[in-house]
Structures are given as structure tokens and as C-alpha cells.
Amino acid sequence: MLPHMKHSAPTRWLAPWIAGGLALAGGACQHTPDSPHRPAAARPAAATPAADGALDPGERRASAAGAHTIGTPGPAIALTTIDGETIDLAAVYGTRPVYLKFWATWCVPCRQQMPGFERIFEAVGDRMAVIAVDTGIDDDVGQVRAFRERYGLHMPIVVDDGRLAAALDLEVTPQHVLIGRDARIAYVGHLDGEPLDRAIQDALSRPAPPRPVAGQAVALRTFHPGDVVQGLSATTIDGTAVALGPNPSGRPRALVLFSVSCEWYLKDTRPLTAQACRRVRETVDEIAARGDAEGSRIDWLGIASNLWTSVENVAEYRAKTGIRIPLAFDADGSLLRAFEARQLPVVVLLDRTGRIARVLGPDDRDLADAVRSVTGAP
After folding, report:
1. Which of 21, 177, 246, 257 has the maximum number of C-beta atoms within 10 A of its C-beta?
2. Per-residue exposure over 269-305, b if at least 16 CB sit within 10 Å of its own CB, e if not
3. CATH number of the structural domain 233-375
């Protein structure tokens, strides 16, 4: 079982702690540090144990992200909400703390936490910039609007274009990120409840410094059809390094960008997406097997998303599905972002020079023809 089948239970209303007697309630679910020696107050908060005494898998992943980001400057990004409004984080720093919550409409613990998230916004939204950040992975604006209506959400909502995920080391959904008035990341977590509430209280109680840091600009390097891929590489789960540009073998290359949990986790909430994931996997395996018999006209590489995933999960996926192509793990999400892979699975076909000849999404059904076109096979 992958870790995101395990989610947090609803939390209780906490004692009033905000001026005026308001109370918070929880619901149910790359920066480079300025210095490796940060003060104790800036160190990542301790992870929260699960009810059974074991460390919650999502909290463990969020803590790993926090180990890289807590104490570092928040991203200097201008966000556009689904209503067309602009939120310039760099302009907010120094005036109010910022609470960014990564989520997705298909994420079960995200749904469980949403009522509590709305209550947090109602309680502190006048003193803290509370922003819901849809990951943009297997979601679109229409689905996000429908979700907002269903759950009665009133906080600003943005759909990430990949920059926030890159800046804040997105590992899991939901993922809470608190940025203080000093523009430094103060807390990263997955569960809601008392640790998150304490972190919010702490962020609100700290005054702004005379000169908050400016934040860190974020830029993504992306590749599109017609571009020659350069500077990207992957390592298979068996330890083989693969340069993703021009292929030394002289053969075209096919990159399959996918999620290991798509076929089963989205089976009920996104059945068409789950079916597309299975169809693409089976089609890839069929084409790859035929290519092997005909002399390997194209080199295949599957690249697994890092969201809720580890190298061990990718190995389990290979064993469970029997997929034959080599598999790699996109540990920081940078490879999927480089190809702007938002609706998974995505197949990127590179010609012999490393130029992107075609990008196919989950709704494209002409993969075999596209492969023949790039290989020159009859």
C-alpha cells in the first residue's frame, strides 16, 4: 500500500488563542539555505506521530521537505488566482505571514482537511495571507472551481504552474508551508491539528523585522516541441545514468512521465485518468516488446513523479505491473516540470538529435503511429 492511503483523523477545536477570543479548528488531512548552521528556532519542527505510534508517512515526507527549506527565504512569485487576481508574495512579506497549502481535488486527505482549512481562513485571514495552492497535477481550473463550490471555500485559490512546487520542495498532498513576516519559511507539515495551529500562532505573534529578506526568484527551464533537450539526466532505479538529450546510441528516445499510483488511486475519483494510465502502460510495453524483436528502434525510459512516491514505490510498481522498460525516479520533480507534464501520463518523443518531435497526453491514442513516425519504421 502506498502511503497516501493513510490519512489523518479530524482534530478538535482548540482553546482560543487569537485576540478577540477566536479559536482555530483543524480539519481531517529549492532553496539553498543561507547557512548550514541555523538557530534552533529555524530548524524543522518535529514530525507528528500517527495514532498507532508510527511516524505518519505524509508527515515524514513533509519533514524531509522542511529539512531543505525551513529557515530559507520564501519564493518571490506573483501568483494569479482562479478569479484573475494577482498576489505578489514579495509584496506581502514584511506585512503579514503567509500560509500556502498544497492540495489536489483528487486527494482524499486534502478533502478531509478542507473544512478546517476554511475555518482557519475565516479566523486569521485578515492577519495572514492564507492561499490554497492546487498542485495543477491531474487538475484543471474547471475542476478546482467545482471543488471550491462544493466545499464552500472562500480563500484565494491558485493553480501552481510548477514554480511553487520547485521552490518549496513539494513532496506530498496536502503540504502546509508557513512563511513568517521575515519572509523565511517557518514550518512545513502534512497533518493538521495542534502542531499546525501552534505554528500559525507563532507566525502571527512574531513581529516583522526592520528589513525582511526579499525572497527568492524562481524560474523554470522548460522544453517544448522543436526544442533540443539539453542539461537533463536521470538515473534508473537499477543505477544506470541516462542523459536525456542527444542519444549516444543514435536512436530516438521515448520518455514516459507517469505516476505509480494513478491506476488504482484515481480509479474511483478519476476513472478516465486511471484508464488512460493503464492504456498507456500497456501500449508502451507492447511497442517496446515489438521494438526489441525488431532490433530496438527506439530507447524507452519511464520517469515516475515524486509526489507521494519513493524509489521503493517505483520498484514495487515494476514488480506489480511487470512493465519491461527501464524506470527512473524524478526525486525533486524537476524532470516532469521541465516537460510541463501536468496531466499524466505524458509521452515525450525525442528524435536522434535530442529534439522533441512529439508530446502525447493521456487522451492521445496514436502512440504507435507517433513512434513509427519518429523511428522511420514502416
Report:
1. 177
2. ebeebbebbeebbebbbebbeebeeeeebbbbbbbbb
3. 3.40.30.10
Q: Per-residue DSSP letters for 151-191? A: HT--S-EEE--SHHHHHHT--SSSEEEEE-TTSBEEEEESS
Query: Which position has the grid cell 485518468?
Result: 273
For residue 30, give the nearest of 337, 242, 370, 246 by alpha carbon. 337
29 has a pLDDT exceeding 70 = no
Confidence of residue 267 (pLDDT cuts 50, 70, 90): very high
54 — pLDDT class (breaks 50, 70, 90): low
Long-range contacts formed by 228-235: CB under 8 A, 24+ apart? 228/353, 228/354, 228/355, 228/356, 229/350, 229/354, 229/355, 229/356, 230/354, 232/335, 232/338, 234/301, 234/303, 234/328, 234/330, 234/335, 235/328, 235/329
Angstrom CA distances, 162 to 113, 219, 334, stand at 23, 10, 9
Q: What is the CATH number of domain 3-205?
A: 3.40.30.10
- Name the residue ranges covered by the structural domains of the chain: 3-205, 233-375
Q: Which residue has the cell 534508473?
A: 236
Task: Tell me how far apart the alpha carbons of residues 306 and 314 are, in angstroms, rounded to a whole number.
Answer: 10
- Per residue in 86-136, pLDDT tens? 999 999 999 999 999 999 999 999 999 999 999 999 999 999 999 999 999
Q: From residue 17, give the alpha-carbon distance in Å to each of 13, 20, 74, 197, 312.
A: 11, 9, 26, 10, 42
Residues 6+ apart with CB under 8 A from 67: 44
**Comparison of pLDDT for 294 and 258, the residue scoring more:** 258
* Percent of the residues in the chain that have a pLDDT greater than 70, as a whole number: 84
With cell 492521445, the residue in question is 364
